[in-house]
Amino acid sequence: MPMADVAIPRGDAVALTRALVAIDSRNPALVAGAPGEGPVARVLADVLRAWGMRVEVYDALPGRPNVVARAGRAGARALMFNGHLDVVGTDGMTHAPFVPEVRGPRLYGRGSTDMKGGIAAMCAAAALAGDAALDAELIVAAVIDEEEASAGTRVLLERGVRAEMAIVTEPTELAVMPAHRGFVWIEIVVEGRAAHGSRYDLGVDAIRHAGLLLAELDAHAPGAQHVGKDAGDRPLPRGSGHKRRVARVDGDEGTRQRYRVAARDREVSH
Ligand SMILES: [Zn+2]
Known about the structure:
- By secondary structure, this protein is α+β, with helices and mostly antiparallel strands.
- It has helices spanning 13-21, 38-50, 112-129, 151-158, 206-219; strands at 54-61, 64-72, 78-84, 101-103, 106-108, 137-143, 165-168, 184-191, 244-251, 258-265.
- The strands form three sheets. It has a five-stranded mixed beta sheet.
- Strand 9 (244-251) and strand 10 (258-265) form a beta hairpin.
- The model is unreliable at 266-270 (pLDDT under 50).
- Zinc ion binds at residues 84, 114-115, 146, 170, 270.
């Protein structure tokens, strides 16, 4: 896209949010045939170059580029702003997903909160802070694939990008979240044994056992007040507690012999 189409006033986070929301960047790992981050990454890179930042664009996955932009003194101790360019699908949305619309104090459109607004805010902050002749470097990392497997940040680290501190501008209800849960997938296979439908007492019903397992997981669900602990067993602040949800249940076709339960634990969701 030529620069004329994306002239965003320097440091204007709202205008940049609108420009980013207008570009479909659904994650192709979540939505078959989705365009991914390429088009939005190219526009963001153009904007940040025009804002005077040192910009690097490279594929973290084929056709899916990270944008890394720097301001301030190269090589000085660094503060990284990190955000993701991908968005989730648009099923169930009641307004046009890629037509950013301002209604009252809010901006609507897919990704306006999670997290093109955050991307725009961190880009504006980094560009303007870079003007202040700080003895520090500001690194903007606009990465791919956070909504699926976080390949973007993983490749960023593999390429040796480091910072003394980092701020992730995910939406957190405007509260500072000094802790992160991380996440882990657990897949449990419940084994059964086939038997004739009239002699089910001779078999083992994996579906029923999977139901008992789900009920047991619920019984151990942490309460809303649960918080995580640090290495010294001290409670961590808000945002650190773990959540658990069962994300997928499926079974082998027709047999009731195997049932699969995938639980996603310790996830930060927005
Ligand atoms: Zn997010």
